[in-house]
Specification:
Length: 229
Amino acid sequence: MPRKLGESPIDRMPTFIKKLVLVAGALAIPIIPFVIWGHDLQTAADAWQQTHTSPVVMAIGLFVLLAFDVFLPVPSSLVNTIAGAKLGILAGSLVCFGGLTVGAALGFGLAKMAGPAIKKRWLEEGDAATLRQFADTWGVATLVITRPLPILAEAAVVLLGIQGLSWRKFWPPVLLANGGIAIAYAAFGQMAADQEWLVIALAISAGFPLLLTYFVRKWLQRRQQEEAA
């Protein structure tokens, strides 16, 4: 196929490659910082855990970590569990709920702002319309399902923001899911702290979302195979 005048390498990419790159980029948002600064972040987190921090400072720190989860490799399940253990179920739930919600809204809002330019550059008109239809039809379910899943939660809000999901459809599932997640992890963290098995609880809270992600991925693959058959 001859090259058109002024056509860039991105313009010459097949459509499915563009979609793949777009999804990979969204998934890489929380991973890339970990690759670059992962060791330093882990060292800082270990040092912070060993300090005697006041509840107010602890609450602010946990809130900030969750609020910037879309940009940083923050294991939100661990942060939520620590919040319950250090602050109690009520304060821990409120901090987690606020942080998770601000983080989701921040990623979604920025993606919505950049969405038109990204779709114009990377997607053909028909593909953009298909993705918009998916967002309108399955966007709410996608937000609910992916909220407790590491990486996929951040990727979902970014992709749905790019696809143009409305704020009206964004808020109810995010608020509901974040509320349930915050209460569940905070209660788990407080119970673990009371029973003095917080280390085990942190291991569980780190592993359970990954296990859940694995089963969701397997289920999606099976559905795709059934639809293709």
